Structure of 3-hydroxybutyryl-CoA dehydrogenase:
Amino acid sequence: MTTGSANSIKSMCVVGAGQMGIGIGLVAARVAKLNVQFVDSNPAQLEKGLGFLDKLLVKDVAKGRCTEDERSEVKSRISSVSSISEMNKVGFVVEAVSENVELKRKIFAELSEKLPSDTILATNTSSISITKIASAARKPENVIGMHFMNPVPVMRLVEIIPGLQTSKATLATTLDLAQKMGKVTTMSQDVPGFIANRLLMPYINEAIITLQEGIATKEDIDTTMKLGANNPMGPLTLADFIGLDTCLAIMKVLHSELGDSKYRPAVLLQKYVDAGWLGVKSGRGFYDYT
Ligand code: CAA
């Protein structure tokens, strides 16, 4: 795989302070030692996200993985603002907002207006076309997919997805930066779901259909895959952990873009999302978290 240099990248902005954005920013600040600025227009989300980040750092000290001084140093590299217009001029941006193509395109257009033209704009989308997101930016050659896995501080993989317009230099710098963040990379063509979600989401969807058809209880579906296939979590627990709204959004992209009925989202998945049962983050999904 091509390697380039991310040495000139000293700072990163993360747009979206949800569970993915916070994890990405934490790893960038702690492992790659970048200055990290979070951008989120929702003050409650920002506060919750930064509180979670603090907790993870405190746990690192408690477990002897870093000293109190290192924790303060990481914290000093982290800041936040509530809009793109207030952002610092940085060398690298990772967008990690919800899976909504129009929202992402709007953000990429705004980032292009605000930032120097050589800033690399990465999207953490889990299924949307990088090429389509890139076409909203002033310099689509600087746009790339950088798909982290949840929980970002724990999972070692980042999928890298060049769009049709992505330059070799953007790809090389992004691969290098992912490595500096301590991650292993794989590379995928820009196709719906890339590698991870092309495989994972139909599996989760099928588990939901298995529940919907009354084939087994949720506990037995999860236990079968946890103990029978040595997965760390069963598929329904994993769906709750990822967020049922995210799972549904990804299945909808696979279904509409690939046009095959095998990707049709489970009726029960749609129902749960309609009810606001989104998994861990809403306190209820297939399981109760209250
Ligand atoms: N953020 C940061 N760290 C977290 C975390 C989170 N949200 N959740 C758990 N962790 C950490 C814990 O703090 C713990 O760290 P320490 O060892 O330092 O204490 C470590 O993970 C292990 O946690 P636990 O001991 O509490 O529990 P566990 O052994 O069951 O592990 C897990 C938890 C790592 C989440 C594990 O269950 C697992 O690997 N699950 C599968 C995760 C997975 O498949 N992720 C991919 C999802 S798909 C995706 O992300 C792509 C997409 O586009 C949808």
Observations:
- Residues 43-62 form the longest helix (20 residues).
